[in-house]
Amino acid sequence: SIFGANLRMRDLVFTQLNSQCVIWNGVVYLNDLSANLTGNDFISGNAIVDFRGSHRYSGKFRGNVSDLSKLQPLLRTFGN
């Protein structure tokens, strides 16, 4: 589990960040991932990734970002 508040990555500020993940028997269970930016802006989701056999996965991610330029520092971090 990871929790943080007022985290800064370059020029992107997460007012709150939560993550809870379990790895068991070759399967990764991302039970919660949520990040609050500013105001009503957020990103959240969950997923299951099975690294055994055919590498099956399922998941759901949601977000509400009123101004996508707020994510530009994150995109620069990954080379975009």
Question: What do you see in this structure?
Answer:
The protein is mainly beta and 80 residues long. The chain has one domain (2-74). It has one helix and five strands; from the N terminus they run E-E-E-E-E-H. A five-stranded antiparallel β-sheet has the order 1-2-3-4-5. A hairpin with a 2-residue loop joins strand 2 and strand 3 (27-36). The longest helix is centred in the C-terminal third of the chain and has 6 residues, at 72-77. It starts with a strand and ends with a helix. 2% of the residues are buried. The mean pLDDT is 90.
| Percent range of helical residues | under 10%
Strand content: over 45%
What string gives the helices and strands in order?
EEEEEH
Overall structural domain count: 1
Largest sheet: 5 strands, antiparallel
Number of helical elements: 1
Strand-pairing-aware structural class: mainly beta
The end-to-end span amounts to: 29 Å
- Strand order in the largest sheet: 1-2-3-4-5
Q: Provide the residue-averaged pLDDT.
A: 90
> Could you tell me the number of beta strands?
5
